[in-house]
Amino acid sequence: MVKKNSIRYLKVIFAFGFLCFCSLSELASKEVETILFKEKGELAQKWDKLFTDHTLINFTYKNQPLSGFGLLGINSKGDYFLFSRTEEKIMQFDNTGNFIRFIGSIGQGPGEYQSISNSFFDAADNLYLYDAPIRAISIFSYPDYQFLKQIHLKSIANKIFINDEGHFVTFSIFNVSNLLKKYDQSGKILVETFKPEDERLSLAMARFNPGGLANIPGTGFLFVYPDKYYIYLYDYNLTLKKIFKPSHFSKFYPKAESFPQDLAPKEFSFEHTKWWDKFLHPADIFFFKDGFFLVIVWESKGRFGKDYINLHDLNGVTYARGLEIPHEGMIKCTRGNYVYIIEQERFIGQDEFVPTKLHRYRLCLPQ
To answer: Fewest CB atoms within 10 Å of the CB: 111, 182, 185, 297?
Structure first.
């Protein structure tokens, strides 16, 4: 009898120990890894030390060079999708810059759009357009890009992409408690997370800075929130896996101060501008296929400003910090190890102007 009780007692202890072990293992698996950025030798001081093979992409429509356009994206075949301010339509060009077709038109009906704030492709090269005023995603199907259907979301999305599972991941700072959301193809919210630490600061940021998302196919996504230079790595279930941090904040590793108590976050004045211009802002993020990512750091100056980049890899190694983007341009997308920069149309004299240009560079790290 004593022997049986001893065996039973040992079984209870073993079961309890196993349960504790499993619980600890589960907790350990939920721990977030923190990675401090470290420098890779001497940081690159010039753009062409990291980005080579400069190509100017020209587009031809009606035997004339196209100008006054914005880049929406590039599909896997290398076709370019532009929005022409002159034609007020989306235009598809092949990889040599020749016009293929118009896609949709301005309007409020099926297959029409009002204000495209995000555009992206899925693995089958279908085109997705996010129309912010109506909080809707319009899908145009490959290969002819005819309108397929429209999906409505519950909240405005500043940034959005479609993941490997066919779900939409969005980031919004407009009047929502959780800023990151995952939707299914019907527009139903599956999971949401990320509450800002400072609500007043979040309200102020919502007016100026959209932050950024960068999909890492097969892994998850990188997320930058504009309050400070932290880069968050999430999986597709919106579980936080890693946080990349600087060892200390500085000009190109910025952190916003608390929003002044004597200013209203939703108003605008000279005092708001003075506060806004005191620091740089993490403004967007882009991923390259070989595990590198760049973060846009925006220096605002009233209505104008200047964009810089920091370049890192997924191990937290930094290759460039505060590198100015050439051509006074804006990075619009990356594809593979190429980065695409829009040089905006601008006047240089009374009757002279520089037309819109699209520049392409290849990321080429020194050995």
So the answer is: 185
Contact at 8 Å (CB) between 82 and 71?
yes
End-to-end CA distance of the chain: 73
Instruction: Count helices and strands (H / E) in the chain.
Output: 3, 32
305-338: pLDDT as tens digits: 889 999 999 999 999 999 999 999 999 999 999 9
Phi-psi region of 175 (alpha: psi -120 to 50; beta: other; left: phi over 0): left
Report residue 157 as tokens: 């999305």
- The region, left, alpha or beta by phi > 0 then psi within -120 to 50, assigned to residue 283 is alpha
User: What residues are paired with 127 via a beta bridge?
Assistant: 121, 140
Handedness of CA 196, 134, 330, 75 (dihedral sign): positive
Tokens matching residue 347: 């006047």
140 contacts: CB under 8 Å, gap ≥ 6: 103, 104, 111, 126, 127, 128, 129, 146, 147, 148
